Amino acid sequence: MSDAVDAIIGQWAKERPDVVEDLWPVQLFGRIQRLARVVDKSARAAAAAHGVEHGEFDVLTTLQRSGPPYTLTAGAFLKASMVTSGAITNRIDKMEAKGLVERVRDGDDRRTIKIRLTEHGHEVTRAAFADHLANYAQLLADVDRDLVDKTAEGLRQVLETLGDTTIK
Amino acid sequence: MSDAVDAIIGQWAKERPDVVEDLWPVQLFGRIQRLARVVDKSARAAAAAHGVEHGEFDVLTTLQRSGPPYTLTAGAFLKASMVTSGAITNRIDKMEAKGLVERVRDGDDRRTIKIRLTEHGHEVTRAAFADHLANYAQLLADVDRDLVDKTAEGLRQVLETLGDTTIK
DNA sequence: CTTGATAATCTCAACGTTGAGATAAAAGCA
DNA sequence: TGCTTTTATCTCAACGTTGAGATTATCAAG
User: Fold this and answer.
1) What digits encode the pLDDT tens for the residues A77-108?
2) Are B114 and B75 in contact (CB under 8 A)?
3) Residue A105 maps to which CATH number?
């Protein structure tokens, strides 16, 4: 059987037979790209059901899993999120307006801003995260569990080789 | 060894031990998400070196691999690209301004617009695509080839099960 | 202390995408 | 022929992100 990436490579084979040997990374990256799109779209919808953007949901879960006191600096999100500082500021701004988090100035270092999950933020996170996991499970409902594990393990090794070994 | 996703799951295990059993999809999707970001950023830079956006590069290669006469309708890009119609119109607008493609009205159906790769577009595509593949190879330079193939095969099966079987 | 360098966060214009709606042409049907 | 539905593309305001630069605070040296 063949998927969308096979079809794309098949087209290249006809039009540019000279590059076929160099297309093997496309087998991996092309599928990563397509899957990322599908999963992203689905996750976005799941978060939207709780009134939060995908990026905002990322902030919420990062705070939640950091444990008590559910407080992190803006810089911590920068390193954890793979986006730029402007995006983080924007996210926190909107989340503060929604009452999901609050900015707290630190006593020790007045450059840093601590972001704290509010009680309301806790509730939204709990509900949205449950839906998020249910959505993930739904997406993989018809996929063999062993295949998921083996493929995830393969991706882990690729990530390690690429140097993505920490939350940063 | 452990990567960023292991670290994230480790945090969840401490803070929310009740959900650990439901985190297995994260092993797959979390890594797909992170890898997509890394690869995307890299591909974006490679395309930018040739003066084209990532989305524009996608249009160029779609046209190129469609073969002679290197002409597709706007609707074909819609189905192939996983973005909305507004994005396609915007892309074609800018690419037309750059002289990469040209809009040609069809004789048979005057609703459809055919997008044709110009000679300049051909040249840019050839050069950018070569760099693109070199960049891909570079990213996977230190990764075992067999691991890449096996992981790509796993992702293909996931994509198939999710229903992404055609270019559409 | 003072000066310069470093660090953390915010500002803001530009950019690409979204998504609902508009426009216009073709197809189906009476 | 007229009328409605469908199809293809474009319009446009809102949105989140980028990326360079500004701001403010801390640190290191002298």
Assistant:
1) 998 899 999 999 999 999 999 999 999 987 77
2) no
3) 1.10.10.10
